[in-house]
Amino acid sequence: MKISDTLFADADDQDVRVKRTLANLKQSVLAFAAEHDIGKASVAEIARRAGISRSTFYQYAQSPVDLLTRILCVELDTARINKLREIEKNPDRFHDVRRAGMSEVIEHVLRYERVYKNGQASSRLALRIVAEHIEQSTLWLIRMGVLNLQFENEAIIPIYAAFRGHGVAAAIEAWLRTPAPRNVDLLLDTIEIDFAI
Fold first, then answer.
1. Structural domain range at position 54
2. Helix (H) or strand (E) holding 156
3. 187-190 long-range contacts, Cβ below 8 Å, gap at least 24?
């Protein structure tokens, strides 16, 4: 298990200038994605907002979409790795740890709610990232043998994982359309129904 991109993960050994550049890039791309269609963002615009040159931008990402993807994925991947390690140490606590992990995904979505509710390419990309995160997490749990699922044909496993990932992302998207304050436990209980079947 490896974090998809350690560059955007908090690291104590990073140079102060690198940390500042990364923080500015993160803030700039998240602010843009919350207000506009990230697919229409130019490197020049994000670089300008971050106070860096285009050549510096390209040291960290290929495009604004790539930058947003990397930022969102690192946070989700870090949470997944921590939860999988907890499950490996305490398999008898699987259900509690799984629910806590899903709760962290929801906290992540709420932290970047303006991106996830953008209604343009930004939110579609972000929700796809969540779907793929849940899909990969499901595959890990199946490989670890902690999900009590019986598949007659192993070819169904990636299909089930994709179904689960996109179903959870769709549930989160629908939940975000409900009026605030939203009930996190209601969403978690709804997502858990699928695991109970």
1. 11-63
2. helix 156-176
3. 187/106, 188/99, 188/102, 188/103, 188/106
Query: 3-state SS of the chain: helix, strand, coil percent to 5?
Result: 75, 0, 25
Q: Is residue 167 part of a domain?
A: yes
What percent of the chain has a predicted confidence (pLDDT) above 90? 82
Token readout for 43 is: 């490197």
Cβ atoms of 134 and 168 within 8 Å: the answer is yes
pTM surpassing 0.85? Answer: yes
Rounded to an integer, what distance in angstroms lies between the CA atom of residue 152 and that of residue 172?
A: 30
On average, the pLDDT of the chain sits at 91
Q: Are residues 24 and 120 in the same domain?
A: no
Task: Reply yes or no on whether the pLDDT at 197 is more than 60.
Answer: no
* Domain match, 25 and 107 both: no
> In this structure, which amino acid lies at residue 166?
H
